[in-house]
Amino acid sequence: MPVAAIGQLCSTSSMTHNLSQARSLIAKAASAGASALFLPEASDYIAPNAAATISLCKPVESSEFVLGIQKEAQKHKLPINVGVHEPTSDGKKVKNTLLWIDAHGSIIHRYQKLHLFDVEIKDGPILKESNSVEKGTSILDPFSTGVGKVGLLICFDLRFPEPSLALRHRGAQIITYPSAFTVPTGKAHWETLLRARAIETQSYVIAAAQSGPHNEEKTRRSYGHSMIVDPWGKVVAELGGEEDENGRGLDIGEIAFAEIDVDLVEKVRREVPLLRRTDVYPDIG
Ligand SMILES: O=C(O)CNC(=O)[C@H](CS)NC(=O)CCC(=O)C(=O)O
Fold first, then answer.
1. H or E segment at 194?
2. For residue range 17-61, what is the model confidence (pLDDT) as tens digits?
């Protein structure tokens, strides 16, 4: 059975640093025999504010980070799913993009995050992703990989069941949610949402996550807890999260694995058919 790997990291505003973290995760996944490695949202960098997010952004063709990942994918013959930023055509904002890089190191699929995280939580995070990010306008048809048919979504997209159901309807067996969840929302919702998406789409959910503080001032920190959930809703791979006694994110630089059993996907779908009553609720059909 093919094995999927998830890698946990803590991106800063240094692409060089982030590439070196990613390279070590790639080497670990390759030597463990994984058929694909899934890395978090915004693996290329996490900047302290919107202006820095925009100014750090490079087209993939000249991004030190993306070029470096492509080279490693080719070297290890390992397909890699990785979240990065790309400039918009007018250069005023960025796209929150998820790349599928194949075993030759070529970018063969790209998805642009649909839903942007604009929140103001009392005594919690205030984040306005739309200040720097342009929202996507479409989902990609699921595509075949060595681990199964993959449908791409990103982070905050997790809160919306509709695109995952659409991907399932179009044949996905695996749905990805590379993320940089905040700590309070992660504590409250992360595992529940991932398991819900897996159960209701009867698919594997693969969610690699950022972990720990992204800058020295600790103005941005992520929840961690990268996870793979099977189509029955069972957590089959998991890394730790939040911070250790030295204020470092947990399990940074670690990978976790799960076998991806597409027969289990078919079995769960056969045993518990989810026949939608779209005659009754066509607006969600
Ligand atoms: O800023 C970047 O460069 C990378 N992007 C992110 O970290 C994004 C937008 S701020 N984070 C989320 O969507 C968290 C969602 C979340 O935490 C929730 O839904 O509860």
1. helix 191-201
2. 999 999 999 999 999 999 999 999 999 999 999 999 999 999 999
Instruction: Calculate the alpha carbon distances from 118 to 121, 127, 176, 208, 228 in Å.
Output: 10, 6, 21, 21, 26
Domain boundaries along the sequence of the chain: 3-272
Strand partners, 99: 82, 110
Residue 93 carries which DSSP code? Answer: S
| Count of H-run helices and E-run strands, the chain | 7, 17
User: In the annotation, is 10 catalytic?
Assistant: no
Residue whose CA is at the smallest distance from ligand 1 atom 1: 46
Contact present, 74 and 101 (Cβ < 8 Å): no
Which residue among 94, 133, 156, 211 has the greatest number of ligand 1 atoms within 8 angstroms of its CB, and so is best to mutate? 156
pTM: 0.97
Residue in 58, 93, 95, 155 annotated catalytic: 155
The predicted complex's ipTM stands at 0.96
Query: What dotted CATH number matches 3-272?
Result: 3.60.110.10
Spell out which residues line ligand 1, taking CB within 6 angstroms: 41-42, 46, 53, 96, 117, 127, 129, 155-156, 159, 180-182, 185
Q: In this model, does residue 141 exceed pLDDT 80? A: yes
| Residue of 58, 95, 113, 149 with catalytic role | 113
Which of 179, 190, 215 best tests ligand 1's pocket when mutated (most atoms within 8 Å of CB)? 179
Instruction: Give distance in angstroms: CA of 268 to centre of ligand 1.
Output: 31
Spatial distance between the Cα atoms of 53 and 85, rounded to a whole number of angstroms: 8
Q: CA 143 to CA 131: how far, in whole Å?
A: 31
- Give which of 6, 5, 2 is closest to 225, Cα–Cα: 6
